[in-house]
Amino acid sequence: MSALQSYTLPTSPNIKKLRETDFALETKDRICIFNERCTIILFYNESPESKNFLNLFNILADTVNGPVFGTCNVVLEKKVVDAFRELHLMEDHPFSWISNKNPPFVVIYRRGYPVNFYDGPADMEILTKFALNVACNPKYNIHNFEYTKNTKAAMWQEFYDKHPFDLSGENQQPVYEIPARPYNP
Length: 185
Description:
This protein is of the alpha/beta class. It has helices spanning 48-63, 78-89, 124-134, 145-162; strands at residues 15-17, 39-44, 68-73, 105-110, 113-118.
């Protein structure tokens, strides 16, 4: 008899818990989703970093209106992980750019296709600005390099101005962390 396994799941009612059936896994596009709206998806596992990001994502989904928020626990959804692995092996696939990410990672989907990803800090203020002003902007996509680069640079600069990098360790800012809430059925 095996022990019961507890998995971390989103607590916000505003987050769609994505399953394998929400992805076009049987098509050549593999990681596309069956949702036409602007969707911000957090792919996560059971690591402390993922649980911290998931807690920020819960707050984000409860405070930001507009995009659809979704999560996919890659520990539970094995076929989604397999699809990412297959894309990683197909270097000439249009979505191969997304296949080398490690959880937690955030992907922006529009019209069912992955268009870009969030690669900034796990900071509530930056995530909120990103979700409100950047993620669903049609100019923000992996192919519009100049716009994407400039937008990220402006967002990150504001964050780094507030949280300067200090090699001495004397002025360290505390990291904002929310304790993870495990799912207990």
